[in-house]
Amino acid sequence: MSDAKTTAAAGDGDALGGVVHPDSAVSPPASGGDELTPGPDGEPKGLVAETSEGSQQLFRRSDTDPDQLRREVGAVLRLPEGVAVDPSDIDIEQSDDETMIINMGPQHPSTHGVLRLMFELDGETVLRTKPVIGYLHTGMEKTAEELTYVQGSTNVTRMDYLSPLHNELVLSLAVEALLGIEMPPRSDWIRMLMTELNRVSSHLMWMATNGMDIGSTSMMIYGFREREMILAFFEKTTGLRMNHNFIRPGGTAADLPDGWEDDVTIICDTVLPRADEYDELLTGQPVFRQRSEGIGTLSAEEALALSLTGPILRSTGVPWDLRRSMPYLRYDEVDFDVIVGTYGDNFDRYSIRLNEIRESVKIIRQCVEKMPAGDYRVQDKKVTPPPRGRIDESMEALIHHFKVFTEGFKVPEGEVYVAIESPRGELGCYLVADGSPKPYRMHIRGPSFVNLQGVPLMMRGGLLADAVAVCSSIDPVMGEVDR
Amino acid sequence: MTIHDRAGETDQTLAVSESGGGSSRAPGRPTQEVVFPTGEQYFDLVAGYRDSGFEMCADVCGVDYLAHPGRRLPEGVTPERFEVVANLLSLSQARRVRVRLQVPEANAVAPSLFDLYPGVEAMEREAYDLFGIVFTGHPDMTRILMPEDWEGHPLRKDYGVGRVPVQFKGSPGPR
User: Fold this and answer.
1) Is residue B43 domain-resident?
2) Residue B151 within any structural domain of the chain
3) Which of A29, A305, A325 sits opposite B117 (nearest CB)?
4) A170: pLDDT confidence band, cut at 50, 70 and 90?
């Protein structure tokens, strides 16, 4: 059967799209360091003239040199050979006729965006996987250098579009660390409340799409239903359902609306019993369990070596949550549990996210309880524009307001790395300031981007049908992967 | 000689291991520990950190200092055009170290940390893609975000932003 497939593939590889023909225009990546050593003019040889040093694609075994193949078989994430796999286990000579290379995506509904996966299959078993990304790259880090710090949060909020407030928070924390300003307590608590609500909505969205990916379509509708409540509250507070630009350097854009306590309490009171319903719907369901237990397993060592963070790392039993381990905002003043798994499989990741919804609700209730009175933004005239009322009275205030929004404020020279726990893992921001009102360099460490490196390892040896489930359990948001 | 930056960055206290790291931590204000190795020391230094409990390399990124030559660096560090910034994370000690390696423009090559932390694979490819810094020892130094036939490295400061001319309706247009 595989014979016939491969023959067909060799015949009209282009028509099939995903099958790589050995004679196709793309050549396998050149190996060896020769091309990479710099020429006399300093520019590494061949870098300018021909930037296509290699392709991200997966090639047939006969076109891949043994070293590369070992790395790819040992998990394309390429652990050093010793760690990943015993090289003698690999059948380098395995005939091309027995395996086939197939392409999934980028336009595939289960890739949660535009992720392209290339598989080498032996029958239904996945031997090698290679994620190919970059289809959504819009140069947001370059854009950030053209925008002022005030405008910056409109840009970053579009990266991880399922948890926009976390993106805004990490940028704001970085800018505030460089400015060296002390934030009023109320703004910290508002930020905590909003980001935790955002975590709930993001995890609900994940439960919904994960349910859909493995055939539980009712879960999809339920997840969206509850998420909508939270988005409605966001709309009431920030004016937008997504891409809020609400958390800004120096505080938040506005105070919470009147009656917010009731709204938030209703959300908590609804989400909690509904989470129990999902628990009943999915956890006890034999089909769901069979499709997630023992699928996409990962050990703690592998997860650490691959820099995986968030629920994926915690599913392997490592109790690492930045909210607990390196607290920011006021997370050291609230009581919550860090949820940890045991086996590092899809089911653990599902349980962690489900229980994190409950823990977030716990934090949200504490935020409602402990919300202090006071300013929602820092009263530093350099950073914060004057309130609307003052603009009508004073010419100076009008000028000041205009200047903050057109020129922005200057941030002292320096660099800082700030990381927070987004629903997907460690969301970091490395910010370099040169004393001007625009960041000199803004780098976002997207958790999805790094977590995708786990795909080849998690899928190795599994079935093609499980590939969708594995991909879903990583919870990649392609806007953040490609930035 | 590796140089620990003890000078405060803005008003942050730098926790340096020898002093016991007893700095006060304000919420949202992380302590920053920065190390400046030379090209030869870089790999061994990171290897030393890994052996002393830094289990994870959280982030690797590049910075192009072309348009900002007079940046503040500790004594004894020669500023170069590029910097490779690696953020190491110790889970057991809840501590971060930032390693900043100076990479000259004439020879934009840095050792890859892949053999120590396989997780830097995608990050180093990103730095190569966007800055043209080549990491020796990396198994697959190819573009990751940009198309494979793209020319140039977009995050370099001498790479233009690019603009699409907008024709507004009813505007007089070029004469």
Assistant:
1) yes
2) no
3) A305
4) very high
